[in-house]
Amino acid sequence: MNKIIIILLASILMLSACSDLLEPAIENNRKLDPAAYLPTDSRFPYGVLLNGYNRIPTNSWSFNDVATDDAVTNDQANAFLKMANGQWTASNNPLNQWTNAYAAIQYLNIMLGEVDKVKWTADENVSRLFTLRIKGETYGLRALFMYHLIQAHAGLSGGSSILGVPVNLEVQGVNTDFNKPRATLEECMQQIYSDLDKAEELLPLDYENIPGAAQIPARYSPATKVEYDRAFGVAFRGLFSGRIARAVRAKAALLAASPAFSEGTTTTWADAANYAAAVLQTEGGGCKTLAANGLNWYSDAGEIAGLADGANPPEILWRNNYGDNRTLEQANYPPSLFGSGRINPTQNLVDAFPMANGYPIADPASGYDPATPYAGRDPRLTRFILVNGGTAGPNSTVINTTADGNTNDGLNKVETSTRTGYYLRKLLRQDVNLNPTSANNQRHYKPHIRYTEIFLNYAEAANEAWGPTGAGSNGFSAYDVIKAIRTRAGVGTSNGDPYLEAAKSNQEQMRALIRNERRLELCFEGFRFWDIRRWKTSLTETAKGVSIRNNVPSVINVEERRFQPFMIYGPVPYGEILKFSALVQNQGWQ
């Protein structure tokens, strides 16, 4: 009996000594406390906003292209490959934005609730300006995350209306009712527009130091030049700005006006065109601002090396921080250059590049010769895609992708070889050396938004709203944009581009041309999958490649695409449907 009592006492003492095991004490968990928001410690509340920045999804380098007709991958564990092969479900969704975006929105809502209480600096007027800026950033980021949510999860439910996602504008706590229904797509779009309007009201167009107090907008008065520069100057380049708010509005409007979503919103093609024009006209008007080096922004060594912190080159509207690395090259160089050859462009994409004279290769006027398939082509082809006989790497090594070649770069030679007869060239720095004896890094950055995207957004929307040469009140047309883009690429420059001129009077032909130019200009930047779905075109085109034997090319089927028609809309996560009865799933998803 005494032994039992001793054991019981020892157990009680042990449990009381280890109470944290049952009820863990809160450690290193700082609560929001307005009384502690001192000028010397404003980093803490701003860190709440930074959590939102850190969660920004980026299309660039996600390579969801391998789930489309533009590319495949030799990485058999790739989530997008599995998705394209029929394993895309509501509980296995590589495109899911639900958890990340709503977590970001929670932090942003917290920021909006606390921002007015914070003493950002000892100077009260500068602190007021900081409050205005941070509010603007927060509204803008919340709109951006809502855009990503509807892009990934809006769709048709059991009814006839297109639903968006639940709209959360308040901080959610332990007593919050999380069982919210999905808002309509129109309600989501109006919330995006509202937040972006607030962001643009509060933010400068760009973060720059000003020459003098006369340039301070009235909404920031009273303020001195020194005060303005402290709150809105060059030190804050890279943060959400008024210009970025305009660009996000243009992106969201294009999505809403597109065939897959247009019946669920009042947003029109004219709205989408005008919103895109509002971005482009801030630089002095229309096509004159198309960056001359917009095709090699990722490899312009001198420009990239000279970038100041937060500064953007002419092609880039918004980007992340740059870093020195060789990650992309390690993943995508051919095996002979010590790479893994992961992203393999398809013959489908290669065939989408026209001849240099502007004609598609299927047009009898093009002069295309299947026996010499890369001769006389659009210069973007060999700039973006490594074809057989092309060069790569710091020593301009000739790459042999033939099926009967004598290196591992050939078709299906080893696990890291190409599956299509092509390797990725776009986005890669060819001055990266992967040889273990002399490996080096180079500077890279990821764009959040490129100006070429906004130009293409405008061209698509303007053509739908007003036809190929209509301009609304904007002074430039879809035709003007496509002509500028093709001229920059070196297409149709020697013959006046008769194919484009023919499309000038045909809206349907111009639509096809604009979509193709978008495919080429934005390839491997994460747009193709979303574009196919919002256009309601086929996701199931078989990915093709080329097998070259005895110098004779033949087209081969590489990978089928197993998508169902309802998959133009993505699913609501299955776990959310199980937890919340008010949520309804999009049609077709289980």
From TrEMBL:
InterPro entries cross-referenced by the UniProt entry: SusD-like_N, SusD_RagB_dom, TPR-like_helical_dom_sf
Predominant location category: membrane
Superkingdom of source: Bacteria
Keywords for this protein: Cell outer membrane, Membrane, Signal
UniProt signal peptide: 1-19
SusD-like N-terminal domain segment(s): 62-210
Limits of the RagB/SusD domain: 320-589
Localization annotation: Cell outer membrane
Cellular component terms (Gene Ontology): cell outer membrane
Family, similarity comment: Belongs to the SusD family.
Protein's name in the database: Carbohydrate-binding protein
